């Protein structure tokens, strides 16, 4: 009898690390930045989890599917628009599977 064993498909996504630099007014800037990111992700059918204080970490993916390189690059372009508020690093695509 032949049995096929295959590895589970990866769940591709990426992380967004936000390091808020601006002193004072931080809360309002953080709120505007996170709202803008949430709206961008929602417009692409992406979801995120995470948060934080002065450093925010978001894990971005797609429910039931995979994030794409084009979507990751879109978030990178968004990050460049916020560089006056925070240093933002967008990771490469990674496997977000719990076993990885």
Describe this structure in words.
The structure is a single chain. This protein is an alpha+beta fold and 100 residues long. It has one domain (20-95). It is built from two helices and five strands; from the N terminus they run E-H-E-E-H-E-E. Strands 1, 2, 3, 4 and 5 form a five-stranded antiparallel β-sheet that branches. A hairpin with a 2-residue loop joins strand 2 and strand 3 (55-61). It is elongated. It starts with 11 loop residues before the first strand and ends in a 5-residue tail after the last strand. The mean pLDDT is 87.
Please tally the helical runs, counting DSSP H or I stretches of 4 or more residues: 2
Mean pLDDT: 87
Number of strands: 5
Helix and strand succession? EHEEHEE
Overall structural class, as computed from helix and strand content, comes to alpha+beta
Q: In what range is the share of β-strand residues? A: 25-35%
Q: Provide the number of structural domains.
A: 1
Unreliable spans are none
Helix content: 25-40%
Assembly state: single chain
Major beta-sheet overview: 5 strands, antiparallel
N→C terminal distance: 30 Å
Question: Mind telling me the C-alpha Rg?
Answer: 16 Å
Q: What general form does the structure show?
A: elongated
């Amino acid at each position: 009898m032949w049995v096929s064993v295959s590895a589970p498909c990866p769940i591709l996504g990426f992380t967004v690390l936000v390091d808020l630099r601006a002193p004072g007014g931080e809360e309002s800037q953080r709120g505007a930045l996170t709202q803008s990111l949430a709206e961008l992700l929602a417009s692409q059918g992406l979801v995120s989890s995470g948060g934080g204080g002065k450093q925010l970490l978001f894990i971005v993916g797609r429910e039931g599917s995979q994030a794409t390189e084009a979507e990751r690059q879109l978030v990178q372009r968004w990050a460049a628009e916020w560089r006056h508020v925070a240093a933002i690093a967008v990771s490469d695509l990674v496997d977000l599977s719990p076993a990885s």
